[in-house]
Design goal:
- The protein has helices spanning 36-40, 47-69, 88-105, 114-125, 165-175, 182-190, 215-230, 237-262, 278-291, 300-303, 308-319, and strands spanning 5-10, 15-22, 26-34, 78-84, 109-113, 133-138, 143-150, 153-159, 267-271, 294-296.
- By secondary structure, it is an alpha/beta fold.
- The chain folds into 2 domains: 5-120 and 303-319, Nucleotidyltransferase, domain 5 (2-Layer Sandwich), CATH 3.30.420.40; 131-298, 2-Layer Sandwich (Nucleotidyltransferase, domain 5), CATH 3.30.420.
- The strands form 2 sheets. Strands 3-2-1-4-5 form a 5-stranded mixed sheet, with helices on both faces.
- Helix 3 (88-105) links the parallel strand 4 and strand 5 (109-113).
- Helix 5 packs across helix 6 (182-190), helix 5 (165-175) runs parallel beside helix 7 (215-230) and helix 5 packs antiparallel against helix 8 (237-262).
- 50% of the residues are buried.
- The structure holds 5'-O-[(R)-(carboxyoxy)(hydroxy)phosphoryl]adenosine and zinc ion (ZN).
- Zinc ion binds next to helix 4.
Length: 336
């Protein structure tokens, strides 16, 4: 049989998702049931509510993914599932569902690292992209600069010391009254603002040129708006958003470019929710062009959490022989 079909499940945070992927590169279906509206009421993801919602949705989402792909379980070669990192209760729902389906249908089970999935999202729309390359993974929970040596083989060369990039976007958005989730809202409002209006710090970690720190810029924004409020001044939401976004993207681009030079890289792929940020894409594209580096990024739907990317990663794990037992568990702090 020359065709490999993976049914993939993702439930690590607040999206219940299932997808069918053919031969690791072709998405036959990509179903996402988002809980964002629900969590918006609380200003962020409430883990217990996320787990309960996953339980309600998981079967429906899996059935929809199979139906949209026009396949049945019998056609599927393996079940891939995110087993970490993420919220433990949320992960457990996906893992339990995947195990049950795989066991009942007699299919192999493949646990996938969530970040490996984010990076693999780049393979969907860039059929020519193959390792080795560099990846900057920027999401709500992670900020990693990764050397992708081969499919499923990674070296993390830089990471955040405190907040993840997406986390900083979410916290700043909340502080300036934009609500949750903050990233897309800051992206939109920033288009009306001046990125040079306010000078927020660009933190570089001493002796660790590839590491990141975003708690300083976040605090600087909070201090700035508190200062305005104390003086009875009205601040420009758009200018704060644009200046904050510029401070964060400047550091992401600077560290990525530093790595590209040092490691003599010719391909850079960004991944994760923040990779859909328009200012980051623009700035990284310009920087890569100046250095003659090929720049890759997934469409926004494949940047934020989805199961198609898990299906892609599971396909390459499938080829390299990875199989998990029925004792597969959720690992909230799983290492790459
Ligand atoms: O990858 P993802 O869906 O979930 C995690 O694995 O964490 O990333 C979600 C994060 C959130 O922090 C969200 O605010 C951010 O990605 N995000 C953005 C944009 N779209 C999503 N940040 C900046 N600009 C965006 N356009
Ligand atoms: Zn994610």
């Amino acid at each position: 049989k020359k065709e490999v079909l993976i049914l993939a499940i993702e439930s690590s945070c607040d999206e219940t998702a299932a997808a069918v992927v053919r031969n690791g590169r072709e998405v036959l279906s990509n179903v996402i049931s988002s809980q964002i509206a629900l969590h918006t009421l609380y200003g962020g993801v409430v883990p217990e509510i996320a787990s309960r919602k996953h339980i309600e949705k998981i079967n429906q989402v899996v059935e929809a993914a199979l139906a949209e792909a026009d396949v049945t379980l019998a056609d599927i070669d393996a079940i891939g599932v995110t087993y970490g990192p993420g919220l433990v209760g949320a992960l457990l729902v996906g893992v339990a569902a995947a195990k049950a389906i795989a066991y009942a249908a007699g299919k192999p089970l493949i646990g996938v690292h969530h970040i490996e999935g984010h990076i693999a999202a780049n393979f969907i729309e860039h059929k020519e992209l193959e390792p080795p390359f560099f990846s900057l993974v920027v999401s709500g929970g992670h900020t990693h600069l990764v050397r992708v040596k081969d499919y499923g083989q990674f070296d993390i060369i830089g990471r955040t010391r405190d907040d993840a990039a997406g986390e900083a976007f979410d916290k700043v958005a909340r502080a300036i009254g934009l609500g949750y989730p903050g990233g897309p809202k800051i992206d939109k409002v920033a288009k009306e603002g001046n990125p040079e209006a306010i000078s927020f710090p660009r933190a570089h970690v001493e002796d660790a040129p590839y590491d990141f720190s975003f708690s300083g810029v976040k605090s600087a924004v909070l201090n700035y708006i508190n200062g305005c409020q104390m003086k009875g001044e009205v601040y420009s939401q758009a200018d704060v958003a644009a200046s904050f976004q510029k401070a964060v993207t400047d550091v992401l681009v600077a560290n990525a470019m530093h790595a590209v030079e040092e490691y003599q890289v010719d391909k850079l792929a960004i991944a994760g929710g923040v990779a859909s940020n328009s200012a980051l894409r623009e700035a990284m594209k310009t920087a890569c062009e100046a250095k003659g580096v090929e720049f890759y990024y997934p469409s926004p739907i494949y940047c934020t959490d989805n199961a198609a990317m898990i299906g892609v990663a599971a396909y390459y794990e499938y080829l390299s022989g990875t199989r998990h037992g029925w004792d597969l568990n959720a690992v909230p702090n799983l290492k790459l």
